[in-house]
Design brief:
Blueprint: E1 2-7, H1 28-35, E2 40-46, E3 67-70, E4 73-76, E5 102-106, H2 129-135, E6 140-146, H3 148-161, E7 165-174, H4 181-191, E8 195-196
Helix pairs in contact: 3-4
The protein binds pyrazine-2-carboxylic acid and zinc ion.
Residues 8, 13, 46, 78, 115, 146-147, 150-151 line the site of pyrazine-2-carboxylic acid.
Domain Isochorismatase-like: 4-194
EC number: 3.5.1.19
Organism: Tropicibacter oceani
């Protein structure tokens, strides 16, 4: 059984948003069209409490897009984004959310970020998505969404390591691409056995 996982197609990651990904809105209609071809559709939603520890605003003197050391490892510090209940955390207005079987929220613990749909950034704390997919008999996943080099990348690598058959539709993703993060993400996904289309 084949599932479509739509990563973080939210207002803050689209042009005009707090952490806008260039061209983020261009993928919405083609993703809607793709949903009809899958037996299961899962959406992820980046969902941070105000004052989340991944926000540069919470680290004195830290600039957005700088890197800090957290107890669980290196963490990029972001502009405040996807704050729970804010318009920026909402899905893009044209995304067909009615088609979703499951919406999984992540990044809701104040002290840890979660790029991946499967594990928080300590690579240990599960989100529960693996259990959902397995109990539904979904073994093969196609990933689309935002951003290619962060949440799509981490989700795809984790899914492949968990034994799912994983495809990333790069044409239906857009990247942040800071300091070579996109090419590093492509290499990491390929190495993990992710099919890059
Ligand atoms: C994301 C940075 C911070 C993403 C989420 O969806 O790729 N990136 N939070
Ligand atoms: Zn985030």
């Amino acid at each position: 059984m084949h599932g479509l996982v739509v990563i973080d197609v939210q207002n803050d990651f689209c042009p005009g948003g707090a952490l806008a990904v260039s061209g983020g809105d261009e993928i919405v209609q083609p993703i809607n069209a793709l949903m009809t071809q899958f037996e299961a559709v899962i959406l992820t939603q980046d969902w941070h409490p105000a004052g989340h520890s991944s926000f540069a605003s919470q680290h004195q003197g830290a600039a957005p897009f700088s890197v800090t050391q957290m107890p669980y490892g290196a963490q990029v510090l972001w502009p405040d984004h996807c704050v729970q209940g804010s318009p920026g955390a909402g899905f893009h207005m044209e995304l067909e959310t009615d088609r979703a079987d499951l919406i999984i929220r992540k990044g809701f613990r104040p002290e840890i970020d979660s790029y991946s749909a499967f594990f928080e950034n300590d690579h240990k704390t599960p989100t529960g998505l693996e259990g959902y997919l397995r109990t539904r008999g979904i073994t093969s996943l196609t990933l689309v969404g935002l951003a290619t080099d962060f949440c799509v990348n981490f989700s795809a690598v984790d899914a492949a390591n968990l034994g799912f058959d994983v495809t990333v539709r790069q044409d239906l993703c857009r990247a942040i691409d800071m300091d070579g993060s996109l090419s590093a993400a492509r290499e990491g996904m390929a190495k993990a056995g992710v099919r890059l289309l």
